[in-house]
Amino acid sequence: MPSIVKVLRLGVAVLVSSLAVGSTAARAADPLPSWNDGASKRAIVAFVDEVTKAGSPGFVPEAERVAVFDNDGTLWAEQPMYFQLFFALDRVRELAPQHPEWKTTEPFASLLKGDVKTALAGGDRAILQIVMATHAGMTTVEFEKIVKGWLATAKHPVTKRPYTQMVYQPMLEVLTHLRANGFKTYIVSGGGVEFMRPWTSAVYGVPPEQVIGSSIKTKFDVRDGVPVLVRLPEVDFIDDKEGKPVAINQYIGRRPIAAFGNSDGDLQMLQWTTAGAGPRFALYVHHTDGEREWAYDRTSSVGRLDKGLDEAAAKRWTVVDMKKDWKVVYPAVAK
Amino acid sequence: MPSIVKVLRLGVAVLVSSLAVGSTAARAADPLPSWNDGASKRAIVAFVDEVTKAGSPGFVPEAERVAVFDNDGTLWAEQPMYFQLFFALDRVRELAPQHPEWKTTEPFASLLKGDVKTALAGGDRAILQIVMATHAGMTTVEFEKIVKGWLATAKHPVTKRPYTQMVYQPMLEVLTHLRANGFKTYIVSGGGVEFMRPWTSAVYGVPPEQVIGSSIKTKFDVRDGVPVLVRLPEVDFIDDKEGKPVAINQYIGRRPIAAFGNSDGDLQMLQWTTAGAGPRFALYVHHTDGEREWAYDRTSSVGRLDKGLDEAAAKRWTVVDMKKDWKVVYPAVAK
């Protein structure tokens, strides 16, 4: 039970720790050091200032400071294809010895011959087959281990970086700045929720309970007296486009006041967020940097940004010009 | 931007506020004043002490301190029928003028004649019809207003109390005690998630994003340029029995370390919670108090506790004897 001594000790500890945090913040007066000065940076800082300034007309109580972030293309890269698909392809190769039938069955046969293009020519159906063959059939605990194991060793084919080091340093700073100002930061991604949760806490500071994504169904079962959740080869929910506001409402039950995306798949999330009363913030990351990252928008098959670009212009949302706005793209790597 | 003065001011403010909280806590040394001394109370206090004591073998980091609570029969009463069903019946009466066909269609016809028993004789199918007729067809924003409006005026037929004052005072203290010790408290209920979220924050201190429940599907739509979510007459998820661990994994993505329920519908949630490593806590509220509340268990159609009672005995879970363990049932009401 809390004695007065314990309470005093707590009080002092809190004071000391808030001073420690504070002095770091005071030293690093710029909360977004990887952003060049410009309209995008100013818009982010101004919005946070507005909603946190007590007594101002735009003030938003802390409980309502919810910010949602798409993941692929917004917090980490998504080219030349979604990273989760690299994971699935690696899993196909690893599981192949247990599936001799894959040698003669598409899309697996082409994949195993190294011909990804032919394998994926089957479109959504082929992708679904690959995802179900690699993401279902195990328990949730087993799947988490598989994802962590893959991330620990896999490297991106172009940059040769671990995938978790292909996150955007400027966006990490936005996440941190928002949280330092009382925001709860959520990921709302078309990616698989159980593919993201094992690492988002360490990489983004976003805990599992603040990660929303696509999902397959799971089934509760008791095996040898031990309760497990088994992952079934059946789509539960696709968290994309119209699905994003649906999932936000389902999981969070509040309308966010800030939303960050990079594609038409995020458009409805930005619409839903900005349709609420009071100050609202919507931002698109526009991939304009073919040298440091990739340049793509209206005609890309991955992360297409077309309707969103038009609506952003019409509604004066913030559009980040990656090439001009970002001093760096990825975090510095200790080599 | 945080100046050193602002930082110091913050530090002092935090110190002062933690002292204020602390001195209240020191005065009220007993965190569970509405509980009689006994095994149940001791078990709750001992568990919280164990997982929060730094350096002890049972210590659990704050991020992992997740506690899940059933709602109906665990946090508030559920007799003579689920309160959400009272809401639905009141809605049927209110909507009847817009539905002349109900006069001759069951289960509505009997309901409108005041014959609830005949109306509900149709079982799950009848209940589903009533729920869909009253819970779907409007936007999420409209539904929230409807729920709040009902709660502001509706009274329980037996106690004549507002429904939100039929919550269990001893359980409110458990929620508060857990949160004071770094726990995140969640509701995981068979009740409708959007029926609970409008009031759980004020009544239980549980914010919308920590409320998990059954749901119907919603659809994103843009009406006159305004994005809305429309509630559809289609079941999305039933958060009961095997569904509870599934939903916990889906929404939270962590296994709770403490679970509180009152019926066989909570059994799988308690099993899933206690199957993790380290200290675990499971508690059943046993409705033994026919005078102050209701007495029911193995044969009740609402909140049946049969298998759960056996498993609790076998696994030495805490079983609250409401009559013996609780000094009061409901909070004191200012009349």
- Tell me which oligomeric state these chains represent: homodimer
Calculate Rg of chain A over CA atoms. Answer: 22 Å
Low-confidence stretches of chain A: 1-27
User: pLDDT average of chain A, as an integer?
Assistant: 92
Structural class of chain A: alpha/beta
What about the largest sheet of chain A? Answer: 8 strands, mixed
CATH class category name of the largest domain in chain A? Alpha Beta
CATH architecture type of the largest domain in chain A: 3-Layer(aba) Sandwich
- The amount of helix of chain A comes to 40-55%
Query: Would you report the number of β strands of chain A?
Result: 8
- What is the domain total for the residues of chain A? 2
| Helical run tally of chain A | 13
| Succession of helices and strands of chain A | HHEHHHHHHEHEEHEHEEHEH
Question: What fold name stands as the CATH topology of the largest domain in chain A?
Answer: Rossmann fold
Distance between the termini of chain A: 49 Å
Largest chain-chain contact? A-B, 55 and 55 residues
**Overall spatial form of chain A:** globular
User: How much of the residues of chain A is beta strand, in percent?
Assistant: 15-25%
**CATH-defined superfamily of the largest domain in chain A:** HAD superfamily/HAD-like
